[in-house]
Structures
1.
Amino acid sequence: MPVKILQGAENAHAYPLLIKQIFASAGRFEPDNQIIYRGEQSFSYSEFTRRVQQLANALKAAGVEAGDTVAVMDWDSHRYLECYFAVPMLGAILHHVNIRLSPEQVAYTMNHAEDKLVLVHDDFLPLADQLAAQLPTVQGYIRLSDGGTPPATPNMSVLGEYESLLAEQSSECDFPDFDENSVATTFYTTGTTGNPKGVYFSHRQLVLHTINMVGMLGSYEGLPLLRSNSVYMPITPMFHVHAWGVPYAAVMLNCTQIYPGRYEPNLLVDLIKQYKVDFSHCVPTILQMLLGCEKGHTTRLDGWKILIGGSALPKGLAKAAMDKGADIYSAYGMSETCPLLTVTHLNKEQRALPAEEQLKYRTLTGVASNLVDLRIEEPSGKPAAHNGSDVGEVTVQTPWLTQGYHKEPAKQEELWEGGRLHTGDVASVHPDGFVEIKDRIKDVIKTGGEWLSSIELEDLISQHPDVAAVAVVGMPDEKWGERPHAMVVASNNELSAGDIQQHLQQFVESGHISKWAVPEHITLVDEIPKTSVGKINKKVIRATLAG
Amino acid sequence: MPVKILQGAENAHAYPLLIKQIFASAGRFEPDNQIIYRGEQSFSYSEFTRRVQQLANALKAAGVEAGDTVAVMDWDSHRYLECYFAVPMLGAILHHVNIRLSPEQVAYTMNHAEDKLVLVHDDFLPLADQLAAQLPTVQGYIRLSDGGTPPATPNMSVLGEYESLLAEQSSECDFPDFDENSVATTFYTTGTTGNPKGVYFSHRQLVLHTINMVGMLGSYEGLPLLRSNSVYMPITPMFHVHAWGVPYAAVMLNCTQIYPGRYEPNLLVDLIKQYKVDFSHCVPTILQMLLGCEKGHTTRLDGWKILIGGSALPKGLAKAAMDKGADIYSAYGMSETCPLLTVTHLNKEQRALPAEEQLKYRTLTGVASNLVDLRIEEPSGKPAAHNGSDVGEVTVQTPWLTQGYHKEPAKQEELWEGGRLHTGDVASVHPDGFVEIKDRIKDVIKTGGEWLSSIELEDLISQHPDVAAVAVVGMPDEKWGERPHAMVVASNNELSAGDIQQHLQQFVESGHISKWAVPEHITLVDEIPKTSVGKINKKVIRATLAG
């Protein structure tokens, strides 16, 4: 298009969007607010800004240059937060190592990302030492310690301990301008087949994700999650999609922040009470763990707003948290999307509903965020209607989507087919904009020529009071193509498959599901197989059920 | 720097930042909220989105193409807001015509911008008709009418009336993607010498300004001005620096919005009361006019937050507004800066102060916004210390600064000297980040080898209870170089020059100003000369005093 672009002054500064600009807001508004680690250490924003600069100088001293990749293996910590800034502000790339992968997969990702320096918590030193010989690109390691004597690491070249290395450095570092499209972060998404795939995000993408999140979670009355006076504690691993990007937003807001280290359910509940945490985010599994632990049973959670994502939030679990006083919101996104795509927003009418009726909106996937263009598409690529009943694959355009899979040319073209990112999720969109994820395309059960959502069935089964957890998968069936099989963890030993089938009859009678949606096969188990990030592992379930 | 930039999928969508993405949020959250014109017309966000698309189709039918310039001459209206979106979303450029300039200057700007189509309110038809023959680039006019018979326009080619043209069009329009650096808006800044200078802003700049403002004014407890449930009414002309960019943010937030048309003080007060307006912004002159009108005298303004900018806010005026119940904040920016640079943010300690003590912070210019890199520079370009006492010229880098003056190569290089935008304002910056504008560089009074701030003197004089308005300028003096001269409007006929000098003695005695800062020359007048945008016109004052 013949739009007009004017040539400005020769010296005009075009202002590339860089993470250092988020950092420039740290302490600008509330310099005395604190960043706290496990209740054991506490740093003001003023200290934080000095430490990030010390870390940057320490990284430079360790040989890190622009374009290098620096890996971190840590629990959620103030140190990890410091790395979120120092590494990319040097023009280097922060590799968030998923420490829940198998050792072979961890090594695969570190070689694939070509990590040069690795910061590793004492808890992961044995793993790192075991892998060291297989990682030719790694030139050195920095120890992250919570105290105590570290295990022996005969195979690793350890440059020093984090705090000692910081202490040697000046707390002033000039961070240069560079291209806003430079890669800032990378991490790996684990499908159920094939090798982990590397996604990556640029400075521009992270700045846009952050400033949008600062507005989205604070300025809308229907979504009052994170403001400058919030006390924020992530319960999503920082290696998992930037802890949903919230740490960057929290720094920009100068919030009080609590980093819980390794997740110990009773400690998490204690931290929430002690610091009056009012905002967290996690996957349903973690919420369940938190409510189910000893302190979870005896502690009220009034004033705690919890944003749930990663997989569908069962109504039963949502209800249990609300009964404890927690305020429930849902969000939707994935590793490829930085991640924010949709989030619960209750409009004026919805906010006026009784809590019980709000539950429906709070457990749907929310509405598209600002700057997110979301639609559902039929297999042909034709947009499906946003009428609440038509279903299609969710495709998106936003400013913060991975532009590809690193060194995976075929897979990245599939991801971006037709110029929109394909999420692999099947959903309907309601006329008021609420997105209702029905299933993963690959988990949809194709039975008798119809699509049956495994997630919808899981939700209905979970509403039985004696069901603690449930997974539904499609299994091959000669007559129908596939049939649903349910795997159930009972909270009451007397629960039987028949009870569940009977429970489902009410939804058949109300017309909510068809008669043929009720599974013939229901297996009671002690535990549902999970992936490294706590999601139901349907691949393993199918293999188990196939026996 | 050898940063890493990865090549993504061939079809990956890079998501240029375009105004259509702000528009996509209109009605996404609160579709039933209203956009109201003078209390006479009201449109839901759903209607607004349809009308903008009708307008875009009408503009296309009128021959508007990408790269063309479309001018608007209107008061603050829903129609102007519709133009804020429809024109740039077509790839065309919206020229905000400053209708307060002299006819010759208006013609100059319209020729300089090469306006092709002009939307003009009935009130400005006589002016437009008078100028028509001098505007060779203009191919047609669209009438904006509040009803009634328009004056005759023998020289203009009027294509039709706005509402009739919209009614003919479909309410669906596909807005294309294009380069985010395309010019979206242009308008003219009026110095006191030379021709008006054209500044311009791209889609990228306006999107960044908007999403930053949505977070800045809503998510910080020290600055709770604009959230989705706000009722917003601008009292800054929409032709003046995008009405400070707030209309774009208000649309993104789906706020209730009141557009007051031509400013009539009693109507403004009525609208504030009728619609429970809780956020407005204006220059001090307008605030004074509003407080001083008949209804202003008799009406409480509790719950009304007012953001003041454009020129320094005298403490006396701030106090008068606060006594009425209004909540006062200050901001700083200029035509070249889109405009947001700084805004009042009260941190936890400052919020705990009594109202009287908060006044100091509320009348300073505030702290730098997120994404704004602000510093003060000595004449050599060396940064001055942010210690509250050193002064220097304010220079900035942000993502939303005009990259030049259109067709003014020399002036734009001066503006961007050294890669930072030079504001021409002299300030000190306090250790807590508060910026205290001392003066325009050209208005600083150089007396006896010292710099004396004309604004500071104005502020002190305004604190005399019988002073209604004041201006101070430097006048040539044989002995001292320059000496301050004050021009004063008294609210009490008995006020004399001696009273003011005596009033200033207290500040000499407290050490706040030097003895030599007290003006020998104080002239009592009926009115202070103002520029077209309501600022004190020091050029005219100097000419008058030189007599």
Note: Chain A touches chain B through 80 residues (CB under 8 Å).
2.
Amino acid sequence: MEKRNIYLDKLPLTEAKEIILNNLAGNYREATERVKVEDASGRVTAEAVYAEDSSPHYYAAAMDGFAVDVDKTFGASKRDPKELTIGQEAFFVDTGDAVPEGCNGVIMIEDVNQLDEATIEITASVAPGQHIRSIGEDILASQLLAPVNTKLGPSEIGGLLAGGITEIEVRKEPEVAILPTGTELVDPGSSLQPGEIVEYNSRVIASQIREWGAVPVKADKVEDDYELIKNRVDRLSQQYDLVLIIAGSSAGAEDYTSQVIENLGELLFHGVAIKPGKPLMAGVINEKLVIGLPGYPVSAYLGTQLFVRPVIERLLGLTCSQPEKVKAELTQNLTSKLGEEEFVRVNVAHIDGDLKAVPLQRGAGVINSVMKSDGFIRIPALKQGMKQNKQVEVELRRDIDYNQNLLIAGEEDLAYELLCNQIKLQGVGLNLKFKNMASETAVDTLEQKAANAALVKTVGMRQETVVVNLAVSEVGLVVRPDNSLGINGVEDLSQEGLSFVNQQQGRAARRLLDSRLETAGINTQEIVGYRQEEITGRDAANLVKEGIIDVGLASRGVAELFNLDFISLGQITSSLVILESEVEREELKKLLEVVRSNEYKSQLQKIAGYNTEDCGEIIDRK
Amino acid sequence: MEKRNIYLDKLPLTEAKEIILNNLAGNYREATERVKVEDASGRVTAEAVYAEDSSPHYYAAAMDGFAVDVDKTFGASKRDPKELTIGQEAFFVDTGDAVPEGCNGVIMIEDVNQLDEATIEITASVAPGQHIRSIGEDILASQLLAPVNTKLGPSEIGGLLAGGITEIEVRKEPEVAILPTGTELVDPGSSLQPGEIVEYNSRVIASQIREWGAVPVKADKVEDDYELIKNRVDRLSQQYDLVLIIAGSSAGAEDYTSQVIENLGELLFHGVAIKPGKPLMAGVINEKLVIGLPGYPVSAYLGTQLFVRPVIERLLGLTCSQPEKVKAELTQNLTSKLGEEEFVRVNVAHIDGDLKAVPLQRGAGVINSVMKSDGFIRIPALKQGMKQNKQVEVELRRDIDYNQNLLIAGEEDLAYELLCNQIKLQGVGLNLKFKNMASETAVDTLEQKAANAALVKTVGMRQETVVVNLAVSEVGLVVRPDNSLGINGVEDLSQEGLSFVNQQQGRAARRLLDSRLETAGINTQEIVGYRQEEITGRDAANLVKEGIIDVGLASRGVAELFNLDFISLGQITSSLVILESEVEREELKKLLEVVRSNEYKSQLQKIAGYNTEDCGEIIDRK
């Protein structure tokens, strides 16, 4: 059972999708159910719906006047008026009133003289149907209200009810079983042991599926055991319309899935030429489609999007929906592997007048990058990448309003997270998206129009930018609470047996450290771990907290967040740098308004070591 | 109680919306509830969510090799290797395995020689953290996962669970009471008496509200009685977050609503300068917002969209969502009333390379036109209309894919409804939208690029168009089943006491009738109702069926649909006319494929009087 699978037939995406949809035909259960129309929003008609009643369904007066049998008005004129008896031959109607039976026209009040309580005199004749609001003005009995396979929304509910339809046959929502496999999996909320992984893929997939109108059925996770998996898949495929097997992240787990499919039914393919998502497979068991999804969270998410969604749509009788797309300019070169269609997550934002697409992390394990993304771009299998400035097509995630996006590039700072929160608390229509990088790089990125603002720490001024103060904060060394190693400053970093973790080169804290080391005349080679870099102070503090490293470099705020001791090395100013050309833009004005709000300042002030005296002030405008 | 209200303060839309949102502040209940993260898709966070665990949460080997305490590797080299005891000082790890406690580095298998079962020799030293996959590569404990007031979707579910969060505080879904008022209202499914109206507004509004994340509470309808309405509104405003009162369509009902609001609380405004939707009002009762919606279905729908949606979003802590918009070219002149912002329903489609917006019926009573529409355009209050060919902004209805739209203009034909159904049955990605007009007008419309195809009956050829045969059908006179009047042909139409209803001028059936009358030498003035026109044969047949009119003009198929007797006057050919320039377009090729399919033909043949021998054949290509 330990042999490794080679992807014998890495299929192109469209081919793989076609195979799946073609193999659906056989087991496509035309299951329908009867529901009340008023509960049918979001459901799909299983048959054409025709109006039973007209709307309006009765003849209504279109004028104030008298309803009459037109025959009795024949020949009436000013010169030769006719008399009619009220309540017998003529009936008073307001506009909208039903026309009494036996009447087939309405004579306008202007053509009527009331002679006494019981009699009117009419001075014109009436044609059949005159001044009567037509039956079926809105909907005519027998007309097609909704073709078969129509997804119903609020206005359709109205139209159907107006047409006298109260119950309809709709497609049954497909039931999709989701089976997570992997011995390493534990349920959310368990206290985690090393090597264990929280099983959240099935929860993500369940909510994807629910959005598309199907019913997810989460099966209990099963460990990497061939027989166990086989029994479960056999049973699930008998019970449900579609079975999804999520393989564990280990190569072995994936083998089980393909073998189970082969031995219970037919394996249609194993391996698709996409990235992430390559190990995806599909088969047919008990006449039901079974899809094996990769275990990496991004692969599982994307695989579900690309393969499960069209299956659900087909089962519901719908055509494949197209994602909303937008054209944007790529902000950096991307390389990719020939022969694989790669899906690169991106953020999208208007920057200095152009819509830009900024790539995010590409790892298959980073669900965070899906959460932060606005959509993805595809690098075709036959390309080895895409060039900066190329116009690319971004397929947007659902309900994304990229017009509210502002991209911030720079050094992570607790001030940033507070800003995100304040924006949402104050109900400001902005979404901030963050890209972590050293200050100088961030300003370069800003100047290259790949960000709307740079979050920088103690950085020199540049042309055509505006610098807005955020806060002054303290940076220093962080150690475990007891400070048992007795660290008092940079002098102690070269202590025998002590381990240190540094921050990335170019970061403000790193520069401060280096200057302190230089002043103290300490050779960095003597510091164990000086070249061991974490990106942010938070990463470093976390390593100290976890007991892996003795000393890290971080801000006082971060030290407090992780309950660590803090030895100050000095102060750093954080600021936002904005393009001069965007300062007057509505979205950036909104952003600065929040920065300058008292609520934000008072939140910021609560962070240990933060001085917000000049928060929101423009430092320089060169 | 009979006095009529004047709209004293017809407010502009934005002003009215602002008043509503400002008056929400007072009664904004910050109600939250705790839910499981895995059930939280679509919900909105009520507080900022920070990661509790990192993901990965353990130190994982990034290479196959041995996990070690790096101190014990210090100084090792090829020249000076060090020996370590397996299971005590060195532990074999596969990529992804947890690094055992006490180890803070992994030495690659390439730098290891296994001496015996218990001992390895290492030829390089290891730095702290080396070849260990960083904790928090995806998510770092303490990081902001979701700001407050964030709407969660599948990937957020994943991110939160990965960050160790299993339960969160979310905004309670606002409960919105919907109270229909009007003595004329009856529930769907009731057998309708003249003057009664099916109460479907509350059902439409309920499904609109559900889409936006609130809980609709449908209250029992109440008749037009001031005290009854007052008591109900008083009670509902105490129980729910927002109360919607749907006034009956009569002017009196609306009075009750405004008086109830005034007497129970404060009327904020009555009357908004929009069309449809003018009589909309709002007030505050028991510190809750109360909105009075107009009774006309389109007004109620639009009023809910414009005023209730932002209230729900505000209650949920979200900013006002912007509809998806698209620019299109208006196909006809539109006039509108100065001082009112008018919302005109439109269809949108690509026609001959350009995206066009084609206005639909504008009446407030026509829910059908909302159902058929793709969105609407706004004519600003300070404009008296919009000119043909103007670029307009269309605000799209949810989930509209206008790229699949084809606009068909022409004479209603049962062949059309069957075609709509066949397209959906065959799973073809097309949506047909129909605009009813006489054949010649339809071909003009086609030539003006305001439709993708004209559905015509026996019409002359034109330049640059292609004509595709649909069917030959019979047209004639329709009478009630017994034919008690003994109608045998056009000669009998001038019978004393007989009433006739005609079709619109320009329609093929009308032209056929006229030619038959001319041949028979009958003066049309002698026919009672000759000038009384219904648009389609179906409308005419319906009037005959309802007993209002004795004889109508329709096809044999329609006669059968309404169970009427039919006296044939002759045959008419129905065909589809397409622009030569669009014949090769993918969407039109798909359409013709369906027209030519055997399934469609066999459906068409089932209609009485239809001959489909040449269905799908190109008649002429001039």
Note: Residues 1-8 of chain B have pLDDT under 50 and may be disordered.
